[in-house]
Design brief:
The chain is mainly beta. The chain contains 3 helices and 29 strands. Helices cover 6% and strands 42% of the residues.
Length: 360
């Protein structure tokens, strides 16, 4: 093809077929259409390593991912993941940028940071002046604010964050004689609101908040009754989402439509728009993709499988453990931890490591 033809944007034809197709036939024996249906490719990368690729000298686990799969947060007892090392023995929180390889330690985080979609905002638990509390850090500036109620005796935990980092849902406890509740913090207005409903009964604690990407819906569970509820902040409605059996929250999809739950009979997912419930007896749903249509499941032998909500191809991801927030958009990647030494070459530390499985 001449330079002029290439720049014109028009295909050159040879005997009624494009030159591109002719070349494909000549060199591969296939057409362009067939080439578009190439086999799925998969790769696995170790996440819990230093920026230069040095493997960690301690165990790593509890990994979470941003929807684009670029930023991974996790916990690790390794001492060599960042140049500054650690200040005292124990586990620390880290965030790895898989595009640049940079690893950042969140010194004060006592839980795996949950990240906004762009990786800028991180929410986690840490010690306040007297009690455990939820904090929010702007990773672009290094500033952080206390999310939980400003009262010195209040305790907060289990934060979850909206996609833009504006809203933080968390569990609040003011005093042991009061039930725990689910509150929400608005970063832009600096205000807090209670999103859970329930009687003033200390045996009816509200627990395990999971927030939609736009911050409109928050799922949570009633530990006293085993009911699971979804609060709609736009309408004020409280909708029961469980299937009538005592259940726990796994994860609300980022689009706010699908809610994964656990019960004694196995995991199940409810479509909050249609009410349809899909059960998965004998296996656990660990996480859902942001659109809710891909599920990460784990069987009794710790095999991790990515599957469609309503059937379709099942893909073996690995062997180990994972948690809510471990699946990226459309199920293109999954982060998990395992002690298996044969996942990537050169794994000789004999420790649990965090890996990202990715498919095209």
């Amino acid at each position: 093809m001449s330079k002029a033809s290439a720049m014109s944007g028009r295909a050159v034809t040879v005997s009624g077929i494009s030159l591109t197709t002719a070349l494909l036939l000549a060199f591969t024996g296939t057409t362009a259409g067939a080439a578009q249906h190439a086999p799925r490719t998969e790769r696995v990368e170790r996440v819990s390593a230093a920026a230069d690729g040095t493997q960690g000298d301690g165990a790593s686990s509890a990994a979470l991912t941003t929807p684009n799969g670029r930023y991974i947060s996790f916990r690790s007892s390794a001492t060599n993941l960042v140049p500054e090392g650690i200040t005292h023995p124990g586990s620390y929180s880290y965030i790895r940028d898989l595009r640049t390889g940079e690893v950042t330690k969140i010194e004060q985080a006592l839980s795996t940071p949950r990240l906004s979609a762009d990786g800028r905002w991180a929410t986690y638990t840490d010690w306040g002046s007297r009690t455990m509390n939820v904090f929010l850090s702007d990773l672009s500036t290094g500033t952080r604010i206390r999310v939980g109620a400003p009262g010195g005796r209040d305790t907060s935990a289990q934060p979850d964050i909206s996609a833009d980092g504006r809203y933080i849902a968390y569990r609040w406890l003011g005093h042991p004689q009061y039930p725990t509740r689910i509150d929400l913090y608005d970063r832009l207005t600096g205000t807090r609101e209670t999103v859970s409903a329930g009687p003033q009964d200390s045996t009816r604690d509200m627990d395990r908040p999971s927030i939609s990407g736009d911050g409109r819906r928050v799922a949570y569970q009633d530990n006293g009754t085993g009911d699971v509820w979804v609060a709609d902040r736009a309408t004020g409605a409280q909708t029961e989402a469980d299937d009538g059996t005592p259940s726990t929250v796994v994860q609300l999809s980022a689009n706010g439509r699908f809610l994964a739950m656990d019960s004694a009979d196995g995991s199940y997912v409810r479509d909050l728009r249609t009410g349809r419930v899909q059960h998965f007896p004998g296996i656990r749903v660990l996480a859902v993709s942001p659109d809710g249509r891909r599920l990460l499941t784990r069987d009794a032998d710790a095999n991790l499988t990515l599957r469609g909500l309503y059937g379709g191809r099942e893909i073996s991801v690995g062997h180990g453990s994972a948690t809510a927030g471990s699946v990226s958009a459309h199920g293109r990647s999954v982060v998990y931890s395992t002690v298996d030494a044969d996942v990537v070459p050169g794994d000789t530390n004999g420790m649990y490591d965090v890996f990202q499985w990715r498919s095209n």
